[in-house]
Amino acid sequence: MFNQAKKIRDKYIREEMWPSIFCTGCGIGNILNYTLRAIDSIGLDIDRTVFCSGIGCSSRLPGYIEADGLHTTHGRAIAFATGVKVYRPELSVIVFTGDGDMAGIGGNHFIHAARRNVDMTVICINNYNYGMTGGQVSPTTPAEDFSTTTPYGNLEEPFDLCRLAIGAGAPFVARWTMGFPYETIAAVESAIQTKGFGFVEILAPCPTGYGKANELRDAPANWEWYKKNTITRIDLAQLSPDERAANRKIVIGTLWQEEKPEYVERWRKLVSRLQADDEPVPPT
Amino acid sequence: MKKEIRICGFGGQGIILAGVVLGEAATRAGHRAVQTQSYGPESRGGAARAEVVISSEPIDYPRVSRPDVVVALSQAGYDRFGHDVADDGIVLVDEALVEAEGVTSVPFTTTAEEVGRKIVSNIVMVGYLGALIEVIPHDVLESTVLANIPAGTEDLNRKAVTAGRDLWLNRAGGNDAS
Amino acid sequence: MPRELDYRRVMKVLGSREKFAQGDVACAYGAILGGCDFFAGYPITPATEVAEAMAALLPRLGGAVMQMEDEIASLSAVIGAAWAGSRAFTATSGPGFSLMQEGIGYACMTETPCVIINVQRSGPSTGQPTEPAQGDMLQARWGTHGDHEIIALAPASVQECVDLTRLAFNLAEEYRNPVLVMTDGEVGHMREQIVLPAEDEIELVQRRPPTDEPGAYVPFRAEQGSVPEMATFGTGFHTYVTGLTHDERGLPATDDAEKHTKLVRRLVDKVRDDTERLTRVEVDNEKGAKVGIVSYGISARSAVGAVRIARGDGRKISHLRLISVFPFPERAVRDFASGLDRIIVPELNLGQICHVVREALEGEAAVELVSRIGGEIIPPEEIVRALVEGGEKV
């Protein structure tokens, strides 16, 4: 594992940006590791890969990768990524985002890109708060939990980001916690290889923000919490109907997979058809 | 030479198309022209107005300031614009749609119905106006109309623009048809 | 990205060179003849026709047109496409322009070439969607936060919609800055004759690619006041682009006041220092005139009418039309005003560029405003009346 880590680091990490800004016990660094292993394993051409991100701790990831990176405005990474991909379909586009960036301010861009089914991979690191700004409530913070802007407890219900992605039309949707490295790596590989909007949500700790406010002050406490509060899709399927109905644990695994027409492919077909030249130009 | 035309009515009457055709035909006839319009956000109903300035000189101010011709296709349009016309100008109203004194009532809609469909009353009006202002040859006007209407309606529109021209040429007190 | 325009192919799609066209559609023609190959936009009155024209025309030329979910996404996609190598633009009106301000600042900070057309309408807020106005001019200059420069052009005719949109693409590439084309609902929707340029009249100015190899290339290194070479994504240069304050390598340097100052000064100076070069004005000086008009956009049409009427009455009057509004042609306006006692500025707002004029003149001449809002463009007679009786003191 360690030799692998060094190999990955030498091959992909932008040394001038190291060490990272991440806090002790943060899960984002792990997810960088898993993503790089995934792209390495499938042999992605790093020169033809663009990493996009918004604003937040998760969005800092492109800076650490020796590759083209587009660190954009809060919530808008997916829209920027759409422009990159549609203009240069041969490039692989991978978006790093967080729960606040993607599902708060970025919610609209998220659901529309999923609906359009633009070929890209979106890795959403869900740490249940706006971490960079000090731990405010986010659209995924569980109800009644504490944050700097919900000092009396969160009055709102959270999104289930995967349900949102499925509802919006994403053809590949998976959720893991950062305690499942191999599954996460495999999920990222699948998302990249999906022809269309591949979505991977990864639950990760934020001991400095959310964790501190909610009695999860270090990495082990968070990993324990994940173990206790998640259930894989496969394990869920083994339960009795009553147990399944009563389940309150977060379901993790590959939650949705289908094949459907992808946006860039459709656009290219249109362009080919129009080159054939015999259609009248719509009036302008 | 300068001709300033203002057409007013409500949305859906094809007023703007009429303005566009007149403006475009004027340029095809070698003049300069600007076509503008005003309307509300609604697709149908609501006041609509098209203006065309045709000139042999470059046109600075693009709107009508001294209308040579005012066409009112609605009572509200007439009430608002029917009294602002140059001393030697002319005010036209659609006989079927507007009640007014001391203006020229023209059967645009009725003629359109005779030609085939009420909806081409704006093209009848275009033919009439083209003949009235005298600076656009009819064949240029007709080809411009045909370039601006949906495929399959050429026959109807050709009849309409010609019928409009004939209305002007055959008008009471007017010249013989050429 | 096209090195040269495939003129034959483009004209096959656009049709004849002479047209009787609407301003919005003319902007689309100008964009395509300016080498545009990506458009993203959102419907908004009175700019929707730009998107509709692009949607009909650009795919025939292999370009991409997207209707995004909002104006923010539209400009974001344009910027993303620009980094992937595209000559890209969007078109909107007031409410959408307000939404795009953050993106405009991001394009300034990251030195992303892009063009934004604002077909101005009556505001504030939803206002009068179908009525023209010139109420976004100062927003064009200062709408986005922080220190930055903007290049803004103001077409006064449908022909200029073609020509200035074409120019905007070249300026965007040359300066690696967003360029705004500030039209309005009147110019956008009126129809006039246009003549599309001949093949030998078209030159595409491109962003300068890296001269160094990957590894040696320093993405944001440039002499003070100048524009760095720009690598295209996916060609092996591994450029990190961020809206954070960054050093020459493009890496975040937010703790460093000196680096921030150096960067932002360069971003500002690269445009500001070239004000003379970017200045485009049309001047009509009358010997012995003591009053002049400084106008722009649709109000310039009213101004030309006023000059015609005034001179017909035997009054002397000079006129300067701003074709480029920002960076503000201070020198040209001061030169114009020297020898004049009064400057009249007609605008479809309650006074925006008149203040910029007054500031530039430093008391050289008195500045008066002829203002109109509500949708009707200014009748020339109103400007003549101000000439005779005095306009609103600025």
In short:
By secondary structure, chain A is an alpha/beta fold. Chain A is built from twelve helices and eight strands.
Describe the structure in your own words:
The complex is a heterotrimer of chains A (284), B (178) and C (394). Chain A is of the alpha/beta class and 284 residues long. Chain A has a single domain (2-275), classed as Rossmann fold, CATH 3.40.50.970. Chain A has helices spanning 2-12, 28-42, 77-87, 99-105, 107-116, 161-168, 181-193, 210-213, 219-229, 233-238, 241-246, 263-275; strands spanning 49-53, 68-71, 92-98, 120-126, 172-177, 197-203, 230-232, 250-257. Chain A has an eight-stranded mixed β-sheet with strand order 2-1-3-4-6-5-8-7, sandwiched between helices. In chain A, strand 5 (172-177), helix 7 (181-193) and strand 6 form a beta-alpha-beta unit. Chain B has helices at 15-28, 75-81, 108-115, 121-133, 138-147, 154-169, and strands at 2-10, 32-39, 47-55, 69-72, 90-94, 104-106. In chain B, strand 2 and strand 3 form a beta hairpin. In chain B, helix 4 crosses helix 6. By secondary structure, chain C is α/β, with parallel strands linked by helices. Chain C has two domains: 7-201, Thiamin diphosphate (ThDP)-binding fold, Pyr/PP domains (Rossmann fold, 3-Layer(aba) Sandwich), CATH 3.40.50.970; 281-393, Rossmann fold (3-Layer(aba) Sandwich), CATH 3.40.50. Chain C contains 15 helices and 17 strands. In chain C, strands 2, 3, 4, 5, 6, 7, 8 and 14 form an eight-stranded mixed β-sheet that branches. A six-stranded mixed β-sheet of chain C has the order 11-13-12-15-16-17, with helices on both faces. Classes of the chains: A alpha/beta (284), B alpha/beta (178), C alpha/beta (394). Chains in contact: A-C, B-C. At the A-C interface, strand 1, strand 2, helix 3, helix 5 and helix 12 of A face helix 3, helix 4, helix 6 and strand 10 of C.
Query: What is the succession of H and E elements of chain B?
Result: EHEEEHEEHHHH
- The CATH architecture designation of the largest domain in chain C is 3-Layer(aba) Sandwich
CATH homologous superfamily caption of chain B: Pyruvate-ferredoxin oxidoreductase, PFOR, domain III
Low-confidence stretches of chain C: none
Strand order of the largest sheet of chain B: 2-3-1-4-5-6
Form type of chain C? globular
Query: Cα distance, first to last residue of chain B?
Result: 22 Å
Strand content of chain C is 15-25%
Number of strands of chain B: 6
Can you count the helices of chain B? 6
Give me the Rg of chain C, rounded.
21 Å
The shape of chain B, in one word, is: globular
What fold name stands as the CATH topology of chain B? Pyruvate-ferredoxin Oxidoreductase, domain 3
In total, the number of domains of chain C comes to 2
Supply the number of helical segments of chain C.
Answer: 15
Q: What percent strand of chain B? A: 15-25%
CATH fold assignment of the largest domain in chain C: Rossmann fold
Q: Can you tell me the CATH class of the largest domain in chain C?
A: Alpha Beta
Main beta-sheet annotation of chain B: 6 strands, mixed
